[in-house]
Amino acid sequence: MSEAGGGRGCGSPAPQRAPWSLVATTAALCLVTTTSMWTAEAAPMTREEKQKLGNQVLEMFDHAYGNYMEHAYPADELMPLTCRGRIRGEEPSRGDVDDALGKFSLTLIDSLDTLVVLNKTKEFEDAVKKVLRDVNLDNDVVVSVFETNIRVLGGLLGGHSLAIMLKEKGEYMQWYNDELLQMAKQLGYKLLPAFNTTSGLPYPRINLKFGIRKPEARTGTETDTCTACAGTLILEFAALSRFTGATIFEEYARKALDFLWEKRQRSSNLVGVTINIHTGDWVRKDSGVGAGIDSYYEYLLKAYVLLGDDSFLERFNTHYDAIMRYISQPPLLLDVHIHKPMLNARTWMDALLAFFPGLQVLKGDIRPAIETHEMLYQVIKKHNFLPEAFTTDFRVHWAQHPLRPEFAESTYFLYKATGDPYYLEVGKTLIENLNKYARVPCGFAAMKDVRTGSHEDRMDSFFLAEMFKYLYLLFADKEDIIFDIEDYIFTTEAHLLPLWLSTTNQSISKKSTTSEYIELDDSNFDWTCPNTQILFPNDPLYAQSIREPLKNVVDKSCPRGVIRVREESFRSGARPPLRARDFMATNPEHLEILKKMGVSLIHLKDGRVQLVQHAIQAASSIDAEDGLRFMQEMIELSSQQQKEQQLPPRAVQIVSHPFFGRVVLTAGPAQFGLDLSKHKETRGFVASSKPYNGCSELTNPEAVMGKIALLQRGQCMFAEKARNIQNAGAIGGIVIDDNEGSSSDTAPLFQMAGDGKDTDDIKIPMLFLFSKEGSIILDAIREYEEVEVLLSDKAKDRAAILKGKMIPSYIINSNPETDNEPPSADQTASGSQEVDLVDGEPPEDSSLNSHSESSSPATTDNAAASASPSQQDSDPTENPGPTGFDGECTYFDEDEEQSETEEDSNPNVSWGKEGQPVHPIVADWNEDMKAIKMLKKEMMKKKMMMKKGEL
Ligand code: DMJ
Predict the structure, then answer these.
(1) How many Å is the Cα radius of gyration of the chain?
(2) Active site includes 294?
């Protein structure tokens, strides 16, 4: 690419050309070499057929434009059902839609450069004269800054661009003296007050006569704007600056873009739909490529093409990478949350996103462009038009269709890129449908409901600005157009701006380089121009092979879900549609797909799973490519998950005898259920669920009722386990890893994810323990039957845990030096005191404690508080614990001051930390057991002595 164009590393075509010109030129060349090879899906179209369709487009344009001029002009738009002009204020308000109407003959201005493209030069000359004679840009009307920019400023600049081209040719427009440009400049100055915000983001509306904020302006109180509204100015504003030399326009548009870039969500690199123009906060944090954001992305890439400024390409590539990672779920494009980009924000798509395949062509990413375009075409074939919104199973969500041009736009660009006559057939269908369903005696009417074919009395100006341009260009050969279309770039409203602007008055771009890019990794950016190998593969059936699996994606009689689409694609033997986010290691079908893609799955000892790809083992080169893509997605997904999972771990603290809170196990939290960081801890006895995996209704609800259920990992989703134990009456759950030997000492902790559905119904806390930590609880159950635990965000102070409880003093008065040593018989015997079994104060959390106490049998520490002296005496050997022996005990009171915390005194016990390594816990526990056994022995000895009357 020429330096003049500003691109990097793209060869050296003719000077004065920006990157887009290379793409288009190559496309044309390819068309010549590939068309004769087509045999399948669509036969090549003869020149006659194409001309016939081109003429049909011309006739349709005449019908639309002629009726507007005859029945509506100088009004902004034609009302094709009542055959009159739409004059703002004279018709019932339609809300925001009316903000495009500024009493400035919108449709005429929006149609100017279409007239030239359609070779209607004489009509163009007349139209320009009418604009200069009739249009007033100083009306007391509040208009949308975005719409006025793309339709009116863009229309005037497109008209000017082609006027000077025609003048130079020497036949038409010889009288022209930049009058349209002067109007554009006047309008530009009228829009500038909108940028008077600290952020530099424009207000969404402005009064053409009074500007903003003045009482007469009736606008300027808005706080929010859409991202596309603030980010779709640079092409028109930069063109205005470069045509006129007045740099202020480009500066303002750049500042707004800089601010949006600055505000992107840094971990996902996505932007939201709506932003506060004063604070820069995201007001709507959902993100897609359709309504509200669409042309922001479009303008970043096209600003690079038009202005040759690398920073725009860097930004575009960064966003594109995020879009392909999170939003693109081929063939779907689904909105996600900017902070949690793995979560879909909705289950439907809007019609505006149909421009995206066209932008992907410009980017050079053809495959997903073909996929999405095909999906959209299937929807169109089902409903005749693209409904304003449709669900992921292709049902109508919003039934209107205001004759939007985005799909025709993408069809044109895909045809340019592939030369595949299939896209000509698609265009033919669009023409047929427009004539059949939208054509009315006085123009073309928007569809009120695509299902019923009912009409709305509107014909938006973009129908003339865009639809006819793209349809005409689709069927036109080079010689059918009186100028070289490849010398121009299309704005979002399809207005034409000459690429030579990249070398004119370019001082501004040099001024505005931000230092921020230095920190970015250059390898993220695709500096090359679109790869011709990808754009035009040697295999002429390439595009068809991508479309083929999607052919029945939208079934005419029975709506299908995304899953079905994927299964179907797979069955057809084409590209396996498995996405990293859908992959489940327990699904045999997925494992089969992995194998086909040359990906092997290795279970590591610590419970993790490793994926390795050997392209050579893949079933075909396409499978190998899929495998590579799958692996890339997996890497991205896991790094994203790691980021998301960096939440502090939780603690499972064993509080019953003989642990008394000394054992704290590091646990992973869940993304659902009670959040222990926000709520009090949950305390209860543990009970194993039956079935142990918790994947179906429990068969032992009486055992887990009011307790913390233990479950084994695997077989079903974590959320399903949680629901099953909750239904059985459990107050919490601990999922124990099924991979033997796994431990938080060696494996990274993770959060248990939900099941992709709403998990608000899960109210109980759920924690995850690796196998080694889990077996400490399981061993404790085997040893003591009743084990009480505390689930919390971090280990609780033992004084709080044991308040009102009686425990052996050696457990409390641990000493760094002697801690690992069991107390001697002397220590336990001496200083023995009366055991106080009655807790006078209610425990900290009375409900939890009372529950624990009432449900605990006499063998436990807590039960001891209510046990009778006779019970205590009954059989100390069978019921070990404070009630079973006369060891030294301490009655804990909340107010009682601890001189030394356990953390201070015992290096093996990590108080204040969430968990402990497993080995010290086990060692510690063994020590405790030894000590307890010695105490028991001591007690027995005492008893015997008492019996013998020695004491
Ligand atoms: C056009 O006005 C522009 O393309 C805009 O960017 C969004 N879409 C409308 C037509 O649908």
Answers:
(1) 36
(2) yes
